[in-house]
Structures are given as C-alpha cells and as structure tokens.
Specification:
Elements lengths: L8 E5 L8 E12 L9 E5 L13 E2 L8 E8 L8 E16 L5 E9 L5 H6 L5 H4 L2 H9 L4 E2 L1
Parallel strand pairs: 2-8
Antiparallel strand pairs: 1-4, 1-7, 2-3, 2-5, 5-6, 6-7
Amino acid sequence: MESNVNSLSFKIDSRHEALQGWRYFWCKNVKGFKADVHCARCLVGSYEKRVGTRAPVNVAVPLTGHHTGDLLYFCGVAMPYRWANNFHLAVRVQPGSVTTAPMSNGDTFIVHGAARVAFDAAAAERSFAGRGKDFLTCRNFQFGAQFASQLRCD
C-alpha cells in the first residue's frame, strides 16, 4: 500500500463567503512535543501552509506530503477571544476516513483521509501537575502530553 496519502483534504462548510471568527487558525503535522512551553510552540512540527485565517470555505483543499499515521493538529483561536469557543481537532492520517467537527462560529470542519484522535487533560495533569493552569488547560499541551510516547520529545 502506498504510504503517501493523496486524498487527504479539508473543507470548511460555511454559510459565509470567507472564514470568519478566528484570530488564529492553523494546523501542524505533529512530530514532537516540548513540555517546557504550551500553546502552538509545544507541538513540534511543520505548519500546513494551506490552513490559516484566509483558508477558503466551501471547497475541498488538498493537504499534500502527509503519510498514513501522521498526526495533524488543527487549532483556531476565537475572535473575540473566549476559551470555550476555540477550535481543537487532532486527527491521524488514515485513508478512507472522514472526520467532521462543529466550529463555534457555526461552520463545520471536515477532514477527508483522517480519523479523529481523542484526547483529554488526564495525561497532562498526571505527568505535569506542577505546571499550573496555563499549561494544564491548554489543549495543545494536553494533546502533546497524551501522545508524548508516540512523539519525539525535546
């Protein structure tokens, strides 16, 4: 089986003509975890250039250069900022899978060719209890802490 996945793509179903409601919107191909920082910097990997606040809506956008098993993390920081409205979606590249996630702005985020990866705060709270609220409530950090054994840790 070919390990390069050519059918990986994302689509944002929206009632608007452009993506709205995000101060930041990004995706990383996560290869490592840095436990001394939180937010996007704790996830080591390259940013996916096609994902951002100017990403098109209502059209499938191909994501190239990823392979079966790669972990991708999509993150949106809501504008105006409200922690509960931020967008977090972790997926593992898996041909044939489709993952759908509602967004706080009313849009729907769809990834073709990847399966959702569930994560929670338990590993971060267990392994990094002394880090404080900024680390332990950061969902990027929670994801990295939970999957650290599968990632390169710096």
